[in-house]
Amino acid sequence: MVTLGICLSLASALQASPVAFVPVTEFTLAWTHSIEKVRWEEDYAVRLDAVRGQPALHAVQARVRGSAAGMEPPPDAVLRQGWYHYTPAIIDPPELRLTRSEFTPDYEVCMQGRCQPMADWMPSDGGVTLLKACRNPG
Questions:
Q1: Tens of pLDDT along 77-94?
Q2: What is the pTM of this model?
Q3: Which helix (H) or strand (E) holds 63?
Q4: Are the C-beta atoms of 11 and 97 separated by less than 8 Å?
């Protein structure tokens, strides 16, 4: 049986970088803006692309808790209970390039209402971590 999920790897060492597999088909990627200290959340689904038969990321919705300089929500965002809700501009990203710094809190991956730092699966090297949909590599 094929297990879908997300694969995490370090962009700086693609050839030698170990891949961390997280078996999940729905998750939220969350982070806090480094300057404004405002939380952002993006909901994703992992599914098989009907044409290529390959795992693919699908952005479902996103939200930001307020707005500030350089963090304006898109024009179609709707304010509900302090969060601006909107549909991401890129619905089917091939991968996410996540810049992780020792000077900011780590990204969180939330599944079934529980959030964990990304470092629980893939330690940061202070650079970019790649997140993409995949099958269990094992």
A1: 999 999 999 999 999 999
A2: 0.90
A3: strand 55-64
A4: yes
Q: What's the CA gap between 62 and 92, in Å, rounded?
A: 13
26 touches 98 (CB < 8 A): no
What gap in Å lies between CA 103 and CA 108, rounded to an integer?
15
Containing 116, the helix (H) or strand (E) segment is strand 114-117
Q: How many whole angstroms separate alpha carbon 93 and alpha carbon 89? A: 10
Confirm if 131 and 122 have CB atoms less than 8 A apart: no
Scanning the structure block, which residue is given the tokens 């952002």?
40
* Per-residue pLDDT tens over the stretch 102-127: 888 999 999 999 999 999 999 888 88
Contacts of residue 112, defined as CB under 8 A and 6 or more positions apart, other chains included, come to none
Q: Looking at this protein, which amino acid is placed at residue 20? A: A
